[in-house]
C-alpha cells in the first residue's frame, strides 16, 4: 500500500492488540484466528476507530476484548441484531460479528438468517468447533451424529446443521468456508469478506483442544488435506486430490466423484461459479461433506445486492426530498380547531 | 326537508354514546369520525375504543362485537364516561353484549333489519328483544338501517354488498343530526380516503347525508340535542390518541436532542400503531426497523444507541418478557434505551386488545441480578407526548434504560390536545465523548453518575463494553468481589439520582386530611373525576398521580404521611401498592380491577365513600352522578 504524505503512519498488527490477557485454553484454534485477524486488519487501510467487533456468548465471543478497536460483547445469540443496529446507525463503520456454532446456530439462528436475507453490511465470522466449549463440553448444532459429549454420553442423535447451507438458504450474498490452521487461506477469505458489500459470512472450522480435539482432523490434517478438501476457485473446474485427478460431476441432481488421469479432466466436471445469481449450485456444493466427499473450502457465493443500510438511507433521502420535516406541522396534524380566547364569557355552563 | 318544521333542540351538559357492531361493521371508523366532528364542535371529550382480538370473528356472534365509546361535554371531562346514555347497536349480538351497561332510560338505536331469527339465535336470544318487552327500561328506536341505506343508494351501480357497507355512514348521519355535529370533517375524510374509488366515496357521502335527513324527518325522534362548547383554554387543538402522542414524542425528542431516532419493533397489539406512525415520518430522518423478533428489536435499538442514535423499542408485556435479558445488557453496559410497554391484559397472551396495568413489577424487577431501570407512566393520551420526551431525556442524561408504561386504554383512547409550541420545548443536550486524554469508558459524571458516551468512529476512544461485570472507571472485565459490589451500588445510585430532578408532586385537593388517593398511569381520569366529585360534596379527600415510578418523586413519602388513609386504585392486584407500602411503610389499601376495562368513576367514588365510613356506599356513586347530572 502506497503511503501519501498527509496520511498518518500506517497501522500495524500491534495497533490491534488490546491490553487484555487472552484467556483461551492453550492450543485453542481461536489464537490463530485472532492473530491472523490482527495481522490482516491493518491491510484494509481503514482507520482503527472505524472498526467494531460485536459478539454474543461463547469462547469465540471473547474475541472483541482482545482487539483494540470498538467492541461489544453482548448476549447469547444476539450479536447480529446488535450489529444491525450499529450498521444502520453508522454505515461508515466496518462491523464484524464474531460468533460460534452454539451462539449462531442454536440460540441465535433467527438473527443470523435475517441478517443474511437483509444483506446488512456486516461481516460474520462463525467459529465452528462442533461443541459447546464455554459450558464445558455439550453437543452443539454442528456436532456430528453419534458425537459423544457430556450431554450425549451415548452419542448425539441429532442431524447436524451445515452452516454454509443455512447461509445460502437465507440468500446470503457472500458465503465462504476456511479453517484455523490454513492461515493464508483464512487471510484471503477475511479480505474478500471485508471487500464485500452486504453481509459476508465465513465459517471457520476451528479446533477445540479441550472438548473436541481433532474434530476436523479428518478434513484439515496437512497429510491428507488435498484429498479431503476441495478448494473452490471461481471459473475453475471442481478438481481435487494430491494428483489433481478427481473431480465433481452431477448425475441427475446428485453430485459424484469422478477420477481421471491428471491433466485430462473430463468436460462434465462442474465448473465453480461463485457469481451466479441463482444459489442452487452453491447450495449443492455446501452439501458436500466428509466422509463421502471432500469438504469445499473457499468462496461458495459472492454476488451483489443492495444492502439494507443503503436502501434504508435511500428511502429516508427520498422522503426527505418530497416532504419537508416540519415538526410543528407534524404534531398539529390535518384536523385542528381553534378555541378563541373569549369563549369562557360566551358559554355559560 | 324544506317543508319539515325544525324539531326542538334540548341542551345537554354531557353525553356518553357507545357504538357497537360486528368488527366488520366499521364501528371504530364511525367512532373516530364522530370523535373528530365532536372535537371540531369544541366539546371536551374522551374515548374508549374496545375491540376483539380476532380480526373478523364470525359475523353476528358475541365474540365478534367491537365497540367505541365517547364521552363529550360542555365541561372539562377526564374519562370516557361510566355508562352510555345512548347505544347504537348494529346487530342483536352488539345489543346483547352492551345493553347491560346502558343507563336506565337510555336510548337504544338498533339496526332493525338485523333482528332476524338467524341473527337472534347467533347472539343467543331465545326471543326477539324488540318484541318481548325485555327492553322496557330503555327508549328503543328501531331503524331499518340496511333497508334505508339500500333505498338511498338504489340508483348507484354499486353491488349490494358494497351498498350495505355504507350503512355505518347512514347511522353516523343520524347521530350527527341527533347531536348537532358538523358533517364536513367526515365528508372531507370520505373524499380523501376514497379518492381512487369515486363511486364508493359518493355512496358513503350520500348515506351520511341521508342519515342526517332521516333524523330530521323521522317521527322516531321528537327532538335533538346540543352540547355546548367546553371552557377550554384558548389555542389550537387537535384530537390525539396515546400511541400517536408517543410516536410524536419520540420524533420531538430526537429533534430536541439533535440525534437520530432508531425504532426497533416487532408487531404486537396494542403497540404496533407506534411503529406504523413512525414508519411514515422518514422525512424526519426516523429509522424504523421491523425486526425478526422482540429480542432483535431491542438488540438493534441497543446497537443503534451504542453508535449514538436514540435507541427505542416498543412492545407490550409479552414482548418485554422476551426483551428482558437485552434490557439487562443495556443496564450493564449503561447505554441509553427507551422501552415502551403498551400494557395489555396478562399473563401470557392474556387479553391482547384489553387494558391492564399489571406490568409494573415486571418493569421494576423483571430481570436477572440487581438491574434497576427508570420507570415512567403517562396519565392521559396527550400526556404520552410529554412523558415520552421525559423518557428520552432521562435515558440520555443518565445513560440508562427507561421503561415507559402506557396501556391499551391510553394507546387507543383519544382526547383533545392543545398543540404545544415546539419552539418552547427545552432542548435535550447530551454530549458525546471526544477527548482521548484521560478517557475511560466507565468514567462518570460526578453529578448524574452517567458514564461517558463514546461513539464508535471517534478516534482515540476505542473501547470494549459488554455484559460481563466490568471494573469501575476502566470498564475492563473484572470478577473482583469489591468491584462488583461497588458497581451494583453505582448502578442503583445512578437511578436514584434521577429523583433530584422530579418536579414537586401536584396535590389535587387539601394537603392533609382524611384520605389520599394515589394513582399511576391511565387511571388518572377516573381518579381525578371521582375525587373532584366528592370534594364538591364537601369530603376531605385529595389525590396525587405518580408519573415517575422509579425512582419515586422525593416528596411522595412526606405527602403520604399527611393523610389518615391512603387508597391506591390500579388495574392489577396491587403492584404499586406493594411498592408504596415497602418504600414508605404506610398502611395504604388497594382498589383493584382486572377486567380489561378501565375504572369507572363510580367505582372509585364508592370505595372512597366506604373508606370514609359512609354507610350508603352502594348508591353513593349513583347519588354523586345524579348530583353531577343536575348541576
Outline:
The complex is a heterodimer of chains A (349) and B (631). With 349 residues, chain A is of the alpha/beta class. Helices cover 30% and strands 18% of the residues of chain A.
Report on this model:
- The complex is a heterodimer of chains A (349) and B (631).
- In chain A, 30% of the residues lie in helices and 18% in strands.
- Chain A has an eight-stranded mixed beta sheet with strand order 2-1-3-4-6-5-11-7, with helices on both faces. Chain A has a three-stranded antiparallel beta sheet with strand order 8-9-10.
- In chain A, α2 links the parallel β1 and β2.
- Chain A is globular and about 95 Å long.
- Chain B has four domains: 219 residues, Pyruvate-ferredoxin Oxidoreductase, domain 3, CATH 3.40.920; 187 residues, Rossmann fold, CATH 3.40.50; 71 residues, no CATH class; 124 residues, Rossmann fold, CATH 3.40.50.920.
- In chain B, the strands form five sheets. Chain B has a seven-stranded mixed beta sheet, with helices on both faces. Chain B has a six-stranded mixed beta sheet with strand order 3-4-2-5-6-7, with helices on both faces. Chain B has a five-stranded mixed beta sheet with strand order 18-20-19-22-23, with helices on both faces.
- The relative contact order of chain B is 0.09.
- With 631 residues, chain B is α/β, with parallel strands linked by helices.
- The C terminus of chain B is likely disordered.
- Chain B is globular and about 85 Å long.
- Chains A and B meet through β2, α3, α5, α11 and α12 of A and α1, β9, α9, α11 and α12 of B.
Tags for this model:
heterodimer; A: 349 residues; alpha/beta; Rossmann fold; eight-stranded mixed sheet; three-stranded antiparallel sheet; globular; B: alpha/beta; seven-stranded mixed sheet; six-stranded mixed sheet; disordered C terminus
Question: Which residues of chain B sit in consecutive blocks of at least 5 with pLDDT less than 50?
Answer: 615-631
- How does CATH name the architecture of the largest domain in chain B? 3-Layer(aba) Sandwich
What spatial order of strands do you see in the largest sheet of chain B?
11-10-12-13-15-14-21
**Helicity level of chain A, as a percent range?**
25-40%
List SSEs of chain A in N-to-C order. Answer: HEHEHEHHEHEHEHHEEEEHEHHEH
| Approximate helicity band of chain B | 25-40%
Q: What percent strand of chain B?
A: 15-25%
Oligomer: heterodimer
Shape designation of chain B: globular
Briefly note the CATH topology name of the largest domain in chain B.
Pyruvate-ferredoxin Oxidoreductase, domain 3
Distance between the termini of chain A: 83 Å
Q: What is the rounded Rg of chain A?
A: 25 Å
**What's the CATH C level of the domain at 13-215 and 305-311 in chain A?**
Alpha Beta
Strand order of the largest sheet of chain A: 2-1-3-4-6-5-11-7
Mean of the pLDDT scores of chain A? 94
Overall average residue pLDDT of chain B: 94
Amino acid at each position: 500500500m502506497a503511503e501519501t504524505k498527509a496520511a498518518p503512519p500506517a497501522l500495524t498488527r500491534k495497533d490491534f492488540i488490546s491490553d487484555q490477557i487472552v484467556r483461551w485454553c492453550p492450543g485453542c484454534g481461536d489464537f490463530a484466528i485472532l492473530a491472523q485477524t490482527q495481522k490482516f486488519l491493518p491491510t484494509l487501510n481503514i482507520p482503527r476507530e472505524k472498526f467494531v467487533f460485536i459478539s454474543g456468548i461463547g469462547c469465540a465471543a471473547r474475541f472483541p476484548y482482545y482487539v483494540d478497536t470498538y467492541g461489544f460483547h453482548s448476549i447469547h445469540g444476539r450479536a447480529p441484531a446488535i450489529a444491525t443496529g450499529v450498521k444502520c446507525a453508522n454505515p461508515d463503520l466496518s462491523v464484524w460479528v464474531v460468533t460460534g456454532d452454539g451462539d449462531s446456530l442454536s440460540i441465535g439462528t433467527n438473527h443470523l438468517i435475517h441478517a443474511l436475507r437483509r444483506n446488512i453490511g456486516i461481516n460474520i465470522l462463525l467459529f465452528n468447533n462442533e461443541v459447546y466449549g464455554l459450558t464445558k463440553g455439550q453437543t452443539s448444532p454442528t456436532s456430528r451424529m453419534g458425537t459423544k459429549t457430556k450431554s450425549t454420553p451415548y452419542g448425539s442423535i441429532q442431524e447436524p446443521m451445515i452452516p454454509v447451507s443455512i447461509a445460502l438458504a437465507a440468500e446470503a450474498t457472500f458465503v465462504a468456508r476456511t479453517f484455523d490452521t490454513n492461515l493464508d487461506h483464512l487471510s484471503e477469505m477475511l479480505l474478500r469478506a471485508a471487500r464485500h458489500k452486504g453481509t459476508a459470512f465465513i465459517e471457520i472450522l476451528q479446533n477445540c483442544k479441550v472438548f473436541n480435539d481433532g474434530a476436523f482432523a479428518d478434513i484439515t490434517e496437512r497429510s491428507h488435506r488435498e484429498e479431503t478438501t476441495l478448494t473452490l476457485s471461481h471459473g475453475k473446474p471442481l478438481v481435487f486430490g494430491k494428483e489433481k485427478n478427481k473431480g465433481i460431476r452431477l448425475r441427475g441432481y446428485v453430485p459424484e466423484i469422478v477420477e481421471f488421469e491428471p491433466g485430462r479432466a473430463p468436460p462434465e466436471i462442474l465448473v465453480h461459479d461463485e457469481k451466479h445469481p441463482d444459489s442452487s449450485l452453491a447450495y449443492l456444493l455446501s452439501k458436500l461433506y466428509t466422509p463421502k466427499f471432500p469438504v469445499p473450502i473457499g468462496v461458495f457465493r459472492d454476488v451483489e445486492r443492495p444492502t439494507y443500510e443503503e436502501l434504508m438511507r435511500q428511502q429516508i433521502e427520498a422522503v426527505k426530498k418530497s416532504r419537508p420535516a416540519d415538526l410543528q406541522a407534524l404534531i398539529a396534524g390535518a384536523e385542528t380547531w381553534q378555541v378563541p380566547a373569549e369563549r369562557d364569557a360566551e358559554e355559560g355552563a | 326537508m324544506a317543508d319539515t318544521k325544525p324539531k326542538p333542540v334540548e341542551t345537554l351538559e354531557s353525553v356518553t354514546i357507545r357504538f357497537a357492531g360486528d368488527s366488520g361493521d366499521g364501528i371504530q371508523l364511525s367512532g373516530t369520525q364522530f370523535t373528530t366532528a365532536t372535537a371540531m364542535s369544541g366539546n371536551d371529550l374522551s374515548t374508549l375504543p374496545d375491540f376483539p382480538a380476532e380480526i373478523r370473528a364470525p359475523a353476528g356472534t358475541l365474540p365478534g362485537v367491537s365497540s367505541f365509546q365517547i364521552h363529550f361535554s360542555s365541561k372539562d371531562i377526564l374519562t370516557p364516561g361510566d355508562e352510555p346514555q345512548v347505544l347504537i347497536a348494529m346487530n342483536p349480538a352488539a345489543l346483547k353484549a352492551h345493553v347491560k351497561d346502558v343507563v336506565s332510560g337510555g336510548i337504544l338505536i338498533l339496526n332493525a333489519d338485523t333482528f332476524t331469527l338467524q341473527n337472534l339465535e347467533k347472539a343467543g336470544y331465545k326471543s326477539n328483544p324488540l318484541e318481548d318487552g325485555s327492553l322496557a327500561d330503555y327508549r328503543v328506536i328501531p331503524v331499518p338501517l340496511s333497508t334505508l341505506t339500500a333505498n338511498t343508494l338504489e340508483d348507484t351501480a354499486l353491488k349490494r354488498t358494497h351498498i350495505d357497507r355504507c350503512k355505518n355512514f347512514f347511522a353516523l348521519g343520524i347521530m350527527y343530526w341527533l347531536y348537532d355535529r358538523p358533517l364536513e370533517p367526515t365528508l372531507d375524510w370520505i373524499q380523501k380516503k376514497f379518492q381512487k374509488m369515486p363511486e364508493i366515496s359518493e355512496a358513503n357521502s350520500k348515506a351520511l347525508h341521508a342519515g342526517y335527513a332521516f333524523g330530521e324527518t323521522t317521527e322516531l325522534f321528537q327532538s335533538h340535542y346540543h352540547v355546548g362548547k367546553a371552557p377550554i383554554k384558548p389555542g389550537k387543538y387537535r384530537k390525539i390518541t396515546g400511541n400517536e402522542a408517543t410516536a410524536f414524542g419520540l420524533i420531538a425528542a430526537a429533534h430536541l436532542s439533535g440525534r437520530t431516532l432508531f425504532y426497533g419493533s416487532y408487531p404486537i397489539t396494542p403497540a404496533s400503531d407506534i411503529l406504523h406512525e413512525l414508519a411514515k415520518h422518514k422525512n424526519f430522518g426516523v429509522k424504523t426497523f421491523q425486526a425478526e423478533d422482540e429480542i432483535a428489536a431491542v438488540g438493534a435499538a441497543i446497537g443503534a444507541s451504542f453508535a449514538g442514535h436514540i435507541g427505542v423499542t416498543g412492545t407490550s408485556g409479552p414482548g418485554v418478557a422476551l426483551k428482558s435479558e437485552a434490557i439487562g445488557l443495556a443496564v450493564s453496559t449503561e447505554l441509553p434505551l427507551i422501552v415502551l410497554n403498551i400494557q395489555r391484559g396478562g399473563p401470557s397472551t392474556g387479553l391482547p386488545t384489553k387494558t391492564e396495568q399489571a406490568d409494573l413489577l415486571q418493569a421494576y424487577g423483571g430481570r436477572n441480578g440487581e438491574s434497576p431501570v427508570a420507570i415512567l407512566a403517562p396519565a392521559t393520551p396527550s400526556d404520552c407526548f410529554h412523558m415520552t420526551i421525559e423518557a428520552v431525556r432521562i435515558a440520555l442524561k443518565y445513560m440508562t434504560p427507561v421503561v415507559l408504561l402506557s396501556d391499551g386504554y391510553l394507546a387507543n383512547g383519544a382526547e383533545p390536545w392543545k398543540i404545544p409550541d415546539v419552539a418552547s420545548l427545552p432542548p435535550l443536550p447530551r454530549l458525546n465523548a471526544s477527548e482521548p486524554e484521560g478517557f475511560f469508558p466507565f468514567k462518570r459524571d460526578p453529578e448524574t453518575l452517567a458514564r461517558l458516551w463514546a461513539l464508535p468512529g471517534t478516534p482515540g476512544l476505542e473501547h470494549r463494553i459488554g455484559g460481563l461485570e466490568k471494573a469501575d472507571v476502566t470498564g475492563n472485565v473484572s470478577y473482583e468481589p469489591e468491584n462488583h459490589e461497588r458497581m451494583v451500588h453505582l448502578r442503583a445510585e445512578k437511578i436514584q439520582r434521577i429523583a433530584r430532578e422530579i418536579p414537586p408532586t401536584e396535590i389535587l385537593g387539601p394537603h392533609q386530611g382524611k384520605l389520599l388517593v394515589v394513582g399511576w398511569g391511565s387511571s388518572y381520569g377516573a381518579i381525578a373525576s371521582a375525587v373532584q366529585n366528592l370534594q364538591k360534596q364537601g369530603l376531605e379527600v385529595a389525590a396525587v398521580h405518580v408519573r415517575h415510578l422509579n425512582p419515586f418523586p422525593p416528596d411522595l413519602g412526606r405527602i403520604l404521611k399527611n393523610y389518615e388513609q391512603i387508597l391506591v386504585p390500579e388495574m392489577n392486584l396491587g403492584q404499586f401498592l406493594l411498592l408504596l407500602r415497602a418504600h414508605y411503610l404506610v398502611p395504604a389499601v388497594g382498589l383493584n380491577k382486572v377486567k380489561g376495562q378501565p375504572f369507572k368513576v363510580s367505582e372509585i367514588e364508592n370505595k372512597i365513600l366506604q373508606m370514609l365510613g359512609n354507610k350508603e356506599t352502594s348508591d353513593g356513586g349513583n347519588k354523586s352522578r345524579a348530583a353531577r347530572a343536575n348541576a
